[in-house]
Amino acid sequence: MSVASVVQLLDKLRDRGLTLAVAESLTGGLLAAAFTAVPGASDVFRGGVVSYATDLKGSLLGVDENLLAQRGPVDAEVASSMAVGVARACRADIGVATTGVAGPDPLGDCQPGLVYIAVVGPWGSKSRQELFTGNREAIRASSVRSALSLLDDLLA
Question: Which of 50, 113, 117, 128 is the most buried (most CB within 10 A)?
């Protein structure tokens, strides 16, 4: 998505009186940067947490430790829990989360490019599994675009 698309997303949130927070793992702050690159985003964007280490998903975002132990950090339910946790921590109406493997190496049984994205808001939650190809930079950029697209779909 382009900067213009992010501006439109922020306008949709603003028009609905909704605020947003992000929880990122593999994207390492790129999703938050997409929002904060837009002047005036601060009236909608509350903040974010980069929980790159698995234990931080539990301690900072409240993801169940048993879930993390059983499924690992690359999982749809983990992504949804991250989104819930960041919305709560940042006192936002909507939480968006990304978790996955950017590569170049696999993480356990998860191959590079496997990504889970979740959006949680007043309407409930929705998650998406993606399998991106390319190098680390391409996988991370594709993850951000997919997260923005999922949020846009839910705001439509």
Answer: 117
Q: How deeply is 102 buried, as exposed, middle or buried, from its count of CB atoms within 10 A (0-12, 13-18, 19+)?
A: buried
Candidates 76, 77, 86, 68; CA nearest to 19 is 86
Strands 94-100 and 20-24: parallel
The amino acid at residue 25 is S
Q: What is the pLDDT of residues 74-86, one digit of tens each?
A: 999 999 999 999 9
Task: Report how many domains make up the chain.
Answer: 1
Entry pTM? 0.97
Q: What is the CATH number of the domain that holds 70?
A: 3.90.950.20
Per-residue DSSP letter, 38 = S
Q: Please choose, from the candidates 144, 153, 156, 150, the residue with its C-alpha nearest in 3D space to the C-alpha of residue 119.
A: 150
- Cα-based angle 118, 121, 123 (whole degrees, multiple of 5): 110
